[in-house]
Amino acid sequence: MDLCPEEQFEHIESDKHSAVFYKNQREQLAVAVPFIVRGLEGGEKCIYITSENTVTKIVESIRRSYKKASEALESKQLSVVLARDSYLRKGNFDPQTCYDDIEEFYNTMEKENYRGLRCTGDMDWIFKNFEFLGSLREYEIGLNSQLEKYKNITLLCQYNMKAYTNEYLKDMIMVHSSVISGDFRGGMFPYHS
Predict the structure, then answer these.
(1) Ramachandran region of residue 184, left (φ > 0), alpha (ψ -120 to 50) or beta?
(2) Is 14 inside any structural domain?
(3) Do residues 150 and 16 touch, judged by C-beta distance below 8 A?
(4) Among 52, 121, 130, 189, which residue is least crowded by beta carbons within 10 Å?
């Protein structure tokens, strides 16, 4: 697997709300896995929310890159969960519920004395739930103001470029403070509001 170039992580990690736009699973994991591994190595609590990729596939990818992955899973430093158990656990997608979850994750991180909170979420769950597309847009737009109250938090949203309209992708580029293309040829596209 080609990994995201090291210098591009400096941009992702200096912003609270970044996104990767990918065309295939290889590009997706080349950014998402090192994002999580860097957090684990830095003593952060890490959460990977997935839908398209199975939990097993994600865990295997992390294990190949991080020797202490099993320990991180056992200690709950690392959690890998399905979107249906996170974004959609109440049977629908509600932005406020997700904001509340972030607050709960953050409070747990502080209580357990981790150095920070690092979350990444694969947004492919929306393909089976298109009725929530407007709510996802609302969530992403509101997330920047929600994150202002937290220190030491880094979020990486994952978008499959083949699955969204160009208009929707443009909106998502504009609401994220940094954007990386999964093929790395485009480099970083910082958007700061």
Answers:
(1) left
(2) yes
(3) yes
(4) 130
Residue 100's domain comprises 6-181
Helices (H), the chain: 6-14, 25-41, 55-65, 69-75, 95-111, 133-147, 166-175
Within 10 A of 107 (CB to CB), how many other CB atoms are there?
11
CB within 8 Å of 32: residues ≥ 6 apart: 20, 48, 58, 120, 122, 156, 158
- CATH classification of the domain holding 12: 3.40.50.300
Query: Helix (H, G, I), strand (E, B), or coil: what is residue 132?
Result: helix
Residue 191: how many other CB atoms lie within 10 Å: 14
Residues 125 and 84: their CA atoms lie apart, in Å, by 8
Q: How many domains does the chain contain in total?
A: 1
Reported as a single tens digit per residue, the pLDDT across 39-91 is 999 999 999 999 766 788 899 999 999 999 999 999 999 999 998 899 888 88
Please state, in angstroms and rounded to a whole number, the distance separating the CA atoms of residues 100 and 123: 18
142 assigned to some structural domain = yes
- The answer to the question of residue 1 being in a domain is no
HSE toward the beta carbon, residue 18, CA cutoff 13 A = 27
Q: How confident is the model at residue 182 (pLDDT cuts 50, 70, 90)?
A: low
Residue 164 located in a structural domain: yes
Report d(CA 85, CA 99) in Å as an integer: 15
In the DSSP assignment, the letter for residue 177 is S
